Amino acid sequence: MHALKIPFTGIVLGGSAIVILSLIAWFSDTPFRTILRATLLVMLVKFTVSPHTSFAAYIAVGFQGLMAAILLSSKLPRFISLFSFFLLAMWESAAQKFILPTLLFGKELWLALDESVAKMSAELNLPSAWSQDFSWKVIAAYLGVYTIWAILLYLWTLGLPKRLEENKERILKAAKSIIPQSRTLQAHKKHKNRLWAFLFVLLFIASSFFLNYGKEDALQKALILLARTTTVVLFLLYILNPILRWLLKRSAQSEKQNSALLAIVEDLPALRKQLPIAWTLAKQKPKKYQRYPDFLLNLLVLSLFQNEQDLDI
After folding, report:
1. Lowest mean pLDDT among 62-66, 78-82, 127-131, 299-303
2. Of 70, 94, 81, 71, nearest to 149 (Cα)?
3. Among 29, 132, 191, 309, which is most buried by a count of CB atoms within 10 Å?
């Protein structure tokens, strides 16, 4: 999806994942076991195809799968379990954007943000109430956006199985006229941008110390921040990441998981062709807000029914 340049790719990917998990629960006779196995397979595919996937990505996938398995297999009424799952999954996705930076940089990140906004508002003669607890307002606004997104996805998913059947023939017929274009991901550029962002945040916090403390105190705080951040990064990279990789590698070597994993990896080229076709069809919608739900509907139809149609032919 990154290669297709779909706007807000992160929130789109997270939303797509929870919709697919809800469909698995919908059609499975044993949703708890099926969802957990599907989650493990997704993590193994990530590990196999993209070995440099971050630790945070595995945590997000694992959390979504676990919550889906617990809630969507519960005896709660379906509309309650589904709505609760959508909210929790999207809240976790939003919270992760703040939890990881806090682990890396500590509370100093948010203090530096509050102090910088307070100084800017004072210089611009803005009301002090506007800048007070600014970081908490940012977090609340971010959670609010993800909450609205969860509600919209929930409402759209309720009638999804029926819409898949109703639109199957139309989408499959339209897809035959689309020529898939090959696209390449620029992973190295993405990693470079993350490194620059990391260094910028580090320098931003360190500079705030020199604006608010004496030179000696500021230097001491900056060195403590650097040591703390370095320790956390090394711990994530060289302790937690290797442990997770070892567990995934061991799971991938089991005969049962290995056969399923190979089948999925073999299907990836077909999925790569379906992605641009689904997006090309969705871009025919005149209004941009209609394109994401149409893209997801197209992709689900192509993934679920294209092989079935090929067999019929």
Report:
1. 127-131
2. 94
3. 309
